[in-house]
Amino acid sequence: MERVIEGGYDIIGYPRLVRLNPNIPWKTRGNGAISLCVGRGKGRKVIIGGKGKEKFYGFLEGKGDAEISFLMKIVSETIEEMAFEGANTNPGFVICKRKPPPSIYWKGVRGILTFEEIKNLLDELGALYGTYGNGRGIIGATASVSWRPRDRTYEIITYRYKKRWGTKRFVDDETTIAMDKECKSTFDNYDYDNRVNRIVPNSPCPVLYGIRGEKPEELIMAKEIVRSEPYLGWMIFETNQGTDDHLQRKKIKEIKPFESVIVRGTVAEEPYTIPGGHVFFKLSDSTGSITCAAFEPTKRFRNIVRGLKGGDVVEVYGGVHEMPFTINLEKLRILKLKDVLIKLENPICKLCGKHMKSAGKGKGYKCMKCGSKADESEARFKKMDRKLREGFYEVPVCARRHLSKPLKRATKTVFN
Ligand SMILES: [Zn+2]
Same structural domain for residues 140 and 10? Predict the structure, then answer.
């Protein structure tokens, strides 16, 4: 971006960080791709980044008519210079005057795009592209350019000085918590249950921290609250993170591996826990059944899952794993808890006043003295205290996927 601006062009809008299908086995870590619109800006501009005293701006309007050969040169030079540092990676870039159709984005975030179909599309559009390694990077790059936000969030990212790359990051937990409380439109900052500072990445990448939220202006304020090691610069991205764009509503029979789905059904079997702490249960609808999983890293969320009983009506949200074929839960909505009855005592014989005995499973009761009979329903029962409530539950912040919409912002979306 710096090099584009140095070259005399403007950035139109915010740079975009687009996350794609999180279930692709051959993806890079976060399956993210960055895109930006380059051209000649006009009218109002917003601040999109900074480096020392220097500020970067994005124009809200403009024409994306930069000279393609110039962009080709700086993009390829930048990738060759920076993308391969100690990383086994297959980057790619795409430069196009016309945006590919939005269907490419939706397929990239929900399904599988092939290298061949992307290559053909780019050739048809007359786009320029460059591939490295296996070339799959152009798939994400094209999907990123194709994105027309239906819903959007923002992330402010700070970048470390190069001499610090790979060393332990200093980002203060206390001021991260203070920021989380102060900046209401931010989300997924801190996991209070598990004491995890979630704005700090786990990988040894050049990112110091990233704060996600609804409002770019508030993110700049949030960054000022967090105390950390000094950083080289910062940038605000428009993103599809926290939008649930990856999810599609499906019947069980229609579910395919690598998708992310919303499925409504009935709990068919009581949940069970296996060694390692992973919890499973079987979900059924009119078309079939599938196993749902809450893995150990989802921590306290598993207690909700363990509380389910056969007959509960739920809606599950999650990614579909191929082998074994399971839905890995991101969110759970309990629609209707089944009344579970616990038997307190057998019926009492009206003639003898004694407790009757079971006449066999499902065969009611019988008095051992006089032979009188009673139905199953004549025993005394009480309703089990389910300890769960109907409503939405989500995995903790520390286990949340980039694309998952936190319940905190769920009410803001028009769709679903
Ligand atoms: Zn009797």
Answer: yes
Q: Tell how far the Cα of 364 is from the centroid of ligand 1, in angstroms.
A: 14
Residues 187 and 91 reside in one and the same domain = no
Determine the distance separating the centroid of ligand 1 and the alpha carbon of 343, expressed in angstroms.
20
CATH number of domain containing 40 = 3.30.70.2200
Same domain, 279 and 395: yes
Nearest to 160 by CA among 217, 236, 228: 228
Burial tier of 349 (Cβ tally within 10 Å: 0-12, 13-18, 19+): buried
Give the domain CATH number at 220: 3.90.600.20
Residues 160, 139, single domain; the answer is no
CA of 333 to the centre of ligand 1 (A): 48
Instruction: State which residues form the domain around 403.
Output: 247-339+386-412
Quote the pTM value.
0.91
Q: How far is the CA of 96 from the centre of ligand 1 (A)?
A: 88
**382 Cα: distance to centroid of ligand 1 (angstroms):** 24
Ligand 1 center to residue 368 CA distance, Å? 7
Rounded to the nearest angstrom, the distance between the alpha carbon of 354 and the centre of ligand 1 is 7
- Could you list the mean pLDDT of each consecutive 10-residue stretch along the chain, which spans 416 residues? 93 97 87 94 95 95 87 94 78 93 97 96 95 92 97 98 94 98 96 96 92 97 98 98 98 97 96 96 97 96 96 97 95 96 92 92 92 91 92 95 93 47
* Dihedral in degrees, nearest 10, Cα atoms 27, 28, 31, 33: -120
| Contact call for residues 343 and 374 (beta carbons, < 8 A) | no
In the chain, the number of structural domains is: 4
